[in-house]
Amino acid sequence: MSDVTVLRDHAHIATVEIHRPPANFFDAALIGELADAYEQLDADPGCRVIVLCSEGRHFCAGANLGSPGSPADEPRSLYRQALRLFADATPVVAAVQGAAVGGGLGLALSADFRVASPASRFSANFARLGFHHGFALSVTLPALAGQQTALDLLLTGRRVPGEEALSLGLCDRLVADGEVRAGARELAEELALSAPLAVRSIRETLRAGLVERVQSALEREASEQDRLRETDDFREGVAASLERRTPRFQGS
């Protein structure tokens, strides 16, 4: 059974859902499945909006860095698939329940819009793991939240709750806990009422050069992840995370 399902309806909306609960960790294969789904829906004139969602408690906790053979060992393969998400032509609304952490935050920010709740939390926790951020957060995070806020979130790795995420621009709408998917659907329905050719044209204009910027950022991010993966600090960061303790970084 696929870890990604696609459900079409008569309102010109497709729901693309990830099925790896509860944390919905991803790897290159899963991101490739998402990209395949996006491309198929791009070619369907009846689809005007995609709702991206996940089964279970959390939207996405990124890569499972504590697992052997995880995307930490294959950033370039993962990011080749991620780049395809940014090249899609159909607007995407992400329903962000629970946590969007690390690469999961990158996946959320690859969408055009995000709907969250007060219980949602957003975190670029890479530096807390002794690691470099990825999934094109070098591009998407400053674009949405501004350079200084991006610097704050990337260097501290702190968790941002739903209310603050809305004020920072990390999400576009805040709905009651338990209503995130319904809220994303409501926004998608609003988008689907607009003229589809005009929507795609406007979106293409506003995203001009985005794929090229993302590609360049992903190359830099993958290179730095390769380098920092070999450090003692990265090993300590991952161990501390698994043991639920404060890491003791030595700068080596």
In terms of DSSP E residues, the strand content is 5-15%
In what order do the strands lie side by side in the largest sheet?
A: 1-2-3-4-6-9
What is the mean pLDDT?
95
Identify low-pLDDT runs.
none
Level-2 CATH architecture: Alpha-Beta Complex
Quickly give the structural class: alpha/beta
CATH superfamily: 2-enoyl-CoA Hydratase, Chain A, domain 1
Question: Any overview of this molecule?
Answer:
This protein has one domain: 2-enoyl-CoA Hydratase, Chain A, domain 1 (Alpha-Beta Complex), CATH 3.90.226.10. The protein has ten helices and nine strands. The protein has a six-stranded mixed beta sheet with strand order 1-2-3-4-6-9, sandwiched between helices. Strand 1 and strand 2 form a beta hairpin.
Could you list some keywords that capture this structure?
252 residues; alpha/beta; 2-enoyl-CoA Hydratase, Chain A, domain 1; six-stranded mixed beta sheet; three-stranded mixed beta sheet; globular
Give a short synopsis of this structure.
This protein has 252 residues and is an alpha/beta fold.
Ordered list of secondary-structure elements with their pairings:
Blueprint: E1 4-8, E2 13-18, H1 28-42, E3 49-54, H2 75-86, E4 92-95, E5 99-101, H3 103-110, E6 113-116, E7 121-123, H4 137-145, H5 147-156, E8 160-161, H6 162-168, E9 173-174, H7 180-192, H8 196-206, H9 210-228, H10 232-243
Parallel strand pairs: 2-3, 3-4, 4-6, 5-7, 6-9
Antiparallel strand pairs: 1-2, 7-8
Helix pairs in contact: 1-2, 2-9, 3-4, 4-5, 4-9
